[in-house]
């Protein structure tokens, strides 16, 4: 039986489930006030023990008083729930709130770059979801509804897609096709290739926070107690090996959990107008990304993932805050052909497949190392020699490390370009590719210095609405050619 589509031209209310989230948020924000009344009601100093009847009356009065105070402080949130209406008026999404002071938020549909749906256990049980709408005009979430009917949210996603006139590569119809899905073996590969050093640092940070809790409980004796227990252990080679094995097992277990939370049941479908990504373990999330809002794309692999053929794809959207993980999605791509299909919606052809490679000047490898790092390392080594001679080797080893890494960075920095796009490969231990369509460039900057001018070099910076791309220490003629091509596309787009 087909479901009747929601008419979003008529004002829509929030789900009553939103009241549960408002109450929960109110309690979380008011826990200090609640704790204060608990202490006042039950733990007064110099007060005799009450009998059961008086204590029962006091509990009732306490609950009523606490509820009244919380209601006064948070009455606006409850009013906002009953008076919030969302609807579509022409090409604008409208939100109306308030009773005495009416507030209307207008979001042009052309500015909406993604619609994010989140479902936790309460949402799934009540068939609702949290809906987040992100626009190109702000780095924060423009509109967030804590509980709205799930099917209404899906209908709104479809309407917003239909109002966007977007052309896609290699697909001439408007039907959605599934381009990507992850199997259990793919999740296992992702867990194995996770950044285990980062996972280990998270575990260490958690252990240190628990140690601080112990210090607060036992006081200054905590460190002495720990030292005493450690000194009583007779460390053997087998015990040390077992502890290392246990640490590796715990790290892998945490990596598996992180992968499940981030990538479990991830599916991606696409049509002419955009992508829909669905994933989640403890909470189900679904995000719609409109294709004409994509500014550039990148994919990267660390050393292990490169061996396994895994790439992490990311779409850079208009006005996106790269520091906020919840505003962008990392898509694990397991096959090369899937990567080409996904990137084809943005740029059908990769310049690296038909154009000659270009490189940075050799000075890009040594200039920073010799001018900045070498003097600092030399000064630090001299200073450490007079304190402890053998310690002076540490700054020298760090200098050698930077010397090697900067050389590798120079060798792996390759770029290709044609009349319509630019592709960059870079990295040190891993590898990253960036693909840019010149039509997405907003402005260009050509940076030079006395050294660069003498060597007829320049650093080219291409700015988009999603992020910036830098081509350092490249021949001035090539930098000007790419800049001219970008400016031509900008003027062509304006006309």
What would your notes on this structure say?
The protein is α+β, with helices and mostly antiparallel strands. It is built from 16 helices and 20 strands. The protein has helices spanning 18-29, 31-42, 52-73, 75-83, 121-126, 150-162, 184-192, 196-218, 221-231, 237-263, 303-308, 336-344, 363-385, 393-412, 450-454, 476-494; strands spanning 85-89, 92-97, 103-108, 112-119, 128-135, 143-149, 177-181, 267-270, 274-279, 284-290, 294-301, 311-317, 330-333, 358-359, 414-417, 421-426, 431-437, 441-447, 457-464, 468-475. The strands form four sheets. Strands 6-5-4-10-9-8-7 form a seven-stranded antiparallel sheet, with helices on both faces. Helix 7 crosses helix 10 (237-263) and helix 8 crosses helix 10 (237-263). The longest helix has 27 residues, at 237-263. It starts with 17 loop residues before the first helix and ends with a helix. 25% of the residues are buried. The model is unreliable at 45-50 and 165-173 (pLDDT under 50).
Ends distance: 49 Å
Instruction: Name the shape in a single word.
Output: globular
| Proportion of strand residues | 15-25%
Any idea what the radius of gyration is? 29 Å
How many helices? The count is 16
Q: What share of residues is helical?
A: 40-55%
Give the strand order, joined by hyphens, for the main sheet: 6-5-4-10-9-8-7
Major sheet: 7 strands, antiparallel
Integer average pLDDT: 79
Could you say which structural class the secondary elements and strand pairing correspond to? alpha+beta
Which consecutive residue ranges, at least 5 long each, have pLDDT under 50? 45-50, 165-173
**Number of E-type strands:** 20
């Amino acid at each position: 039986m087909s479901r009747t589509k929601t008419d979003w031209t008529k004002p829509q209310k929030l789900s009553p489930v939103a009241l549960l989230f408002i109450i929960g948020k109110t309690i979380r924000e008011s826990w200090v006030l609640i704790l204060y009344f608990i202490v006042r009601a039950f733990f007064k100093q110099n007060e005799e023990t009450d009998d059961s009847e008086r204590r029962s009356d006091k509990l009732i009065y306490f609950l009523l008083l606490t509820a009244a105070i919380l209601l006064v402080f948070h009455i606006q949130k409850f009013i906002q729930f009953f008076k919030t209406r969302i609807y579509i008026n022409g090409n604008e999404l409208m939100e109306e709130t308030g009773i005495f002071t009416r507030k209307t938020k207008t979001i042009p549909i052309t500015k909406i770059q993604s619609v994010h749906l989140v479902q936790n256990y309460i949402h799934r049980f009540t068939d609702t979801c949290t809906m987040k709408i992100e626009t190109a005009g702000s780095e924060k979430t423009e509109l967030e509804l804590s509980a709205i009917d799930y099917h209404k949210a899906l209908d709104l996603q479809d309407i917003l897609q239909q109002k966007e006139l977007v052309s896609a590569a290699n697909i001439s119809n408007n039907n959605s096709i599934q381009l990507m899905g992850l199997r259990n073996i793919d999740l296992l590969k992702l867990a194995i290739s996770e950044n285990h050093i980062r996972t280990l640092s998270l575990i260490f940070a958690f252990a240190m926070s628990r140690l601080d809790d112990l210090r607060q409980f036992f006081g200054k004796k905590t460190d002495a107690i720990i030292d005493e227990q450690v000194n009583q252990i007779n460390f053997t080679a087998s015990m040390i090996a077992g502890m290392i094995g246990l640490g590796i097992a715990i790290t892998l277990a945490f990596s598996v959990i992180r992968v499940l939370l981030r990538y479990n049941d991830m599916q991606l479908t696409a049509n002419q107008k955009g992508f829909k990504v669905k994933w989640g373990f403890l909470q189900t999330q679904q995000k719609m990304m409109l294709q004409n809002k994509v500014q550039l794309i990148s994919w990267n692999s660390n050393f292990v993932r490169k061996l396994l053929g895994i790439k992490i794809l990311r779409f850079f959207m208009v006005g996106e805050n790269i520091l906020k993980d919840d505003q962008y999605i990392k898509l694990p791509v397991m096959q090369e052909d899937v990567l080409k299909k996904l990137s084809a919606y943005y740029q059908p052809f990769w310049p690296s497949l038909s154009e000659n490679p270009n490189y940075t000047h050799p000075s890009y490898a040594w200039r920073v190392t010799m001018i900045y790092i070498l003097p600092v390392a030399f000064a630090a080594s001299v200073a450490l020699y007079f304190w402890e001679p053998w310690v002076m080797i540490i700054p020298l080893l760090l200098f050698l490390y930077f010397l090697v890494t900067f050389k590798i960075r120079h060798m792996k920095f390759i770029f290709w370009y044609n009349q319509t796009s630019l592709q960059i490969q870079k990295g040190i231990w891993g590898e990253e590719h960036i693909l840019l369509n010149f039509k997405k460039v907003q402005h260009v900057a050509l940076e030079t210095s006395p050294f660069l001018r003498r060597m007829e070099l320049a650093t080219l910076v291409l700015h988009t609405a999603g992020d910036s791309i830098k081509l350092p220490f490249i021949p001035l003629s090539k930098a000007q050619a790419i800049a001219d091509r970008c400016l031509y596309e900008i003027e062509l787009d304006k006309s």
